[in-house]
Amino acid sequence: MDTVGLDMALFYENAWKRLSGISEEVRSEVNEMRSREEALFAGNERLPEAKRFCFHFEMSNFLTRIVRGLAYKASKVFGSKKGELEIDYIEIDREVHAAVFYSDCFTNDYKKPNFDAFSPVAIWEKLEREYGNGKGIMEMRRRAASDLASVLGVRRGLSMQTRKGSAVVSIGKHEIVVCLRALEVFGEWTDLDWEVDLVQEWIVGREGGSRRKLEFGPHLSIRVFKSKYEISFSLGVAEQVQFFLGEFYFAEKTKEKGEGSEAGEEENLEEEGLEGEGLKGSADVEGVEVAV
Questions:
Q1: What is the pTM of this model?
Q2: Radius of gyration of the CA atoms of the chain, in A
Q3: Core-most of 115, 122, 207, 271, by most CB within 10 Å?
Q4: Residue 123: which of 81, 72, 76, 83 has the closest Cα?
């Protein structure tokens, strides 16, 4: 178990218990302030803060901040150095809120939430089970492969074209950042040093006229056009991209399909842009082959 992540969870666990422990005291104090406030300022359209203060809302917001913080910490701990593991904290937050706060907790001050149903340590342990021991890195690779399959046109049956000793593919302007982030993850998988932070280098160099060329080391370059970007890979890297997609995209798609008749599997694979031995992640995957 990650020590820093656990320490963070323990800190918030204790903070949550301390605050929830004084909830009744705070509620009584707020109610007393409200009574005095109404007596002193009756008839005023705008009353001071006590009228609007709701301890349950404050605790609800605090809970969300804790869950979001733990999810962000887990994304750093269980992800790779390149890219960032995306963890959807919203679903976790929704589940915890459903257990802690009843539907009328925010309208009925006398309906005490089940504060004990929330444990930051339990949330951290759940995140560790789901993303620890390399699971988070594998998830990053699957997502990166899926993103590359989309932006490089693999899902549409497109292939890279060779030009002047490079493999070239065109992508839409809105896809460039997704593509570069996925390539960061791919680069770490292959132990390929891009020599620069791809996304940051792109942000710095993207301004300028059409048809300019941006170099990202010896293996990658991007040429800018008015309505698209043209990405050029060295042939060696293009082949590695094929292996990456074979292992983390096509193989995963095959698992999702499950077992079926051989004929049915071949038909489904053709729909995904595969043929024959492409399932093994080899360079003859039709959807990503480098056309000579």
A1: 0.71
A2: 27
A3: 115
A4: 72
The SS3 assignment for 79 reads coil
pLDDT at 245 over 50: yes
**279 CB-near residues (< 8 Å, 6+ apart):** 246, 250, 251, 254, 269
CA separation (Å) from 263 to 149, 260, 268, 274, 276? Answer: 24, 8, 9, 14, 12
Neighbours of 292 (CB within 10 A): 7
Neighbouring residues of 167: CB distance < 8 A, sequence distance ≥ 6? 160, 161, 232, 233, 234, 235, 237, 238, 290
Enumerate residues 6+ apart whose C-beta is below 8 A from 291. Answer: 159, 160, 161, 162
Contacts of 51 (CB under 8 A, 6+ apart): 34, 37, 38
Helix (H, G, I), strand (E, B) or coil at 231: strand
Residues 157, 70: Cα–Cα separation, whole Å = 40
Cβ-based burial of 244 (10 A; exposed 0-12, middle 13-18, buried ≥19):
buried
Pair of tokens at residue 7? 């320490």
Res 282: pLDDT: 36
Q: How far apart are CA 289 and CA 292, in angstroms?
A: 9
Considering only residues 30 and 4, tell me which one the structure prediction assigns the higher pLDDT. Answer: 4
Crossing angle of helices 235-245 and 176-189, in 10° steps, is: 90
Percent of the chain's residues with pLDDT above 70: 75
| Tens digits of residue pLDDT in 140-154 | 999 999 999 998 887
Report the SS3 class of residue 225. coil
Does residue 36 carry a pLDDT above 60? yes
pLDDT of 78: 93
Neighbour count for residue 155 (Cβ, 10 Å): 16
Cα separation, 132 vs 153, in Å, equals 32
